[in-house]
Amino acid sequence: MAGAAVAGFQVQAASLAADTPRDVTSNGAEPPAFSRLAALHRGQTPAGSDACPAARSIPTQVLAQQAASALVDAGFPVVRATTFEVEGVHEGAWFGFAHDAVVRIRPGRTDIRVAARDRIRPDGGAACRLAGKLADALEAAAR
Questions:
Q1: In b/e form, how buried is each residue of 61-88, taking b as 16+ CB within 10 angstroms?
Q2: DSSP of 117-143, one letter per residue?
Q3: DSSP for residue 26
Q4: pLDDT per residue of the chain (143 residues) written in tens, 0 to 9
Q5: Contact (CB, 8 A) for 91 and 98
Q6: SS (H, E, C) 47-62
Q7: Where are the beta strands (DSSP E) in 6-119?
């Protein structure tokens, strides 16, 4: 029993130590910018969908209400909403990890960006997983 616990901690430590991007976007050429949360992410350059395939654009213009609903469904309570951008914050249950997300809505395309607030501690791929969860929720809302 103790051996299983030790093995579990080793797996957890290895996943957290993995070098994964902490800031991912569906549009690496022109990433969505944070507005209300911008001060928390100054100087960060997000990784594109090549580093995180789960961070994908939605090939349609969703409504701001749909984007807000998708953020909430993905675990990001909304902190700012306008006609063409919606931002949310995801507070992790473990160790206080927080991630911010922005959904940018344009004609024919909706882009996402998810960024960890903590730039020092590795997040074990959480930013990419959350981006995938958000992209799934947006696709479901767009149907």
A1: ebebebbbbbbeebbbebeebeeebbbb
A2: S-SSS--TTHHHHHHHHHHHHHHHHH-
A3: S
A4: 655 544 444 444 444 445 689 999 999 999 999 998 888 888 888 999 889 999 999 999 999 999 999 999 999 999 999 999 999 999 987 667 899 999 999 999 999 999 999 878 888 899 999 999 999 999 999 88
A5: yes
A6: ECCCCCCCCCCECCCC
A7: 23-25, 78-81, 85-91, 98-106, 109-116
